Amino acid sequence: MFQRGSRYYGLSHRTHEDEKGNSYRFVERRLIPRHTERTSGTLRVEQAERLDLVAARALGDPSRFWQLCDANAVLDPFVLNAASGRLLDVPE
User: Fold this and answer.
1) How confident is the prediction along the chain (92 residues), in pLDDT tens digits per residue?
2) Disulfide check for 89: which of 20, 39, 76, 79 has CB 3.0–4.6 Å away?
3) Residue 27 covered by a domain
């Protein structure tokens, strides 16, 4: 269902059946991992720099922005680019 590299790749799929007998497939809830990953260092967010651009600069792939969120224990990606000059932990 999800491509390799997605934050949801590898999560279990579940099915819910409502009272009318309709079945709905969904992905198991994903929790932010504990901050135990090794980091390769830190990176300063530039003014008005979007998180996908930070991920491209730090990780070589803009679609890996969610790994920056995990490494910094943040659920909402917009929190990370809200404050310019913020230092982010960069995962290995």
Assistant:
1) 688 878 888 888 999 999 999 999 999 888 777 765 566 788 888 887 888 999 999 999 999 999 998 888 888 888 887 667 888 889 87
2) 39
3) no
